[in-house]
Amino acid sequence: MANSVAARKLRLALDIYEVGEQMQRMRLRRERPDADVVDIEVAIDAWRMTRPGAEAGDSAGRTSTRFM
């Protein structure tokens, strides 16, 4: 039973992420009407790697240099 609850929570989190990414794509298309698919993908990749307000991650503590 606990596994099914955890699985539902994970699925919900992934669904929310997908909706957020779709919203970001729509925003980018509105802001850049002349951008092609590659331009949008590059912008999405940059968006994934940039975290306004959470540049050092989401948790307190020592900053990781693993991805820098």
From TrEMBL:
<dbReference type="InterPro" id="IPR044054">
    <property type="entry name" value="Rv0078B"/>
</dbReference>
<dbReference type="Pfam" id="PF18993">
    <property type="entry name" value="Rv0078B"/>
</dbReference>
<protein>
    <submittedName>
        <fullName>Uncharacterized protein</fullName>
    </submittedName>
</protein>
